[in-house]
C-alpha cells in the first residue's frame, strides 16, 4: 500500500449496528449504507450472517445486501462464522467475507465454545469454499491487548493466532483491542514484534475507545507502517464489557487525524459526517464523533 495513503474499513453498519439496541428496518439500513457509499469509502462491512437469535440486528443482512446501491470502487463485506453463513453471503453477492477468533482461550470458549485452534480448524473448509467463489477472506483476532476474563494476553499468542489465520488463507488480519485497554506504548511493542514475523501490509488495527486511547493507538500503529484501520461512523457500537463506555472509534475522528497527517483516504469528511448524523437520528442516540460535534450543522 502507498505509504502516503491509508484505508478505512467502515464497520458501523455491522459491528456498530449489531451492538445498538434500537432495531432498524431494512430501509433504514440501506439508506445508511448508501450514504456511506457516497463518501468515497472503499470498504464497508454491510452485514453479518450469524444466527438472528444471537444477533437480531443482522437478521436482514441478505435483504440489505440485495437492496443497497453499490459503488464500483467499494467492497461490501459480511461476517460469516460458518459454512451456512458463507452460503448466505454468496447468495447475497457479498464481495468479501470475514471470519473471527480471539487471542484469549477463555474469550473464544465463552463466545464460540471451542479452543482457538479448533475455531481456526473450522474455518479451513469455509476459506476453501470462499476461494472457489473468488471471495477474499479477512480475519479478525479479538482481545489482542487484553481480555475481560484473562487480563493481559501474551504477544506470542496474538502473533501465533494471526499467523495461523494467514496460513489458512486470510489475506489480511485485523488486530482487535476488544475492551479498549491498550495504550500507545504497548501497541508499539505488539506491532513491532508482530511485524518481525508478519508482513505489515497483511495487518489492520481495530481499536475500541473504551478508555479514550483509540486515536493514540492508531497513531502509534501508523508510525510502524500500519495503513488499514477499522472504524465505525459516529462511534456506533457500545462496549459490552464496560457499562456506559464507548466502543468503536469514530470514523470521522480517524479521518480528521489521517488528513491532518497528510495521508490520503479518498473519503469526503463532510459526507461522512452527514451519514453519521443520519444514523444517530434514526437510532435516537448521541453522536460519538468529536469531529461531528465540532462541525456546525448546515442550514
UniProtKB/TrEMBL annotation:
Tagged with keyword Ribosomal protein: no
Stretches assigned to the Pyruvate carboxyltransferase domain: 6-273
Pathway membership, UniProt: Metabolic intermediate metabolism; (S)-3-hydroxy-3-methylglutaryl-CoA degradation; acetoacetate from (S)-3-hydroxy-3-methylglutaryl-CoA: step 1/1
Cited SUPFAM superfamilies: Aldolase (SSF51569)
Gene3D superfamilies: Aldolase class I (3.20.20.70)
GO biological process: ketone body biosynthetic process; L-leucine catabolic process
Listed EC numbers: 4.1.3.4
Origin: domain of life: Bacteria
GO molecular function: hydroxymethylglutaryl-CoA lyase activity; metal ion binding
Pfam families (UniProt xref): HMGL-like (PF00682)
Reaction catalyzed: (3S)-3-hydroxy-3-methylglutaryl-CoA = acetoacetate + acetyl-CoA
Keywords, sorted A to Z: Lyase, Metal-binding
Protein family membership: Belongs to the HMG-CoA lyase family.
Name of the protein described by the UniProt record: hydroxymethylglutaryl-CoA lyase
Species of the source: Alkalimarinus sediminis
Lineage: Bacteria, Pseudomonadati, Pseudomonadota, Gammaproteobacteria, Alteromonadales
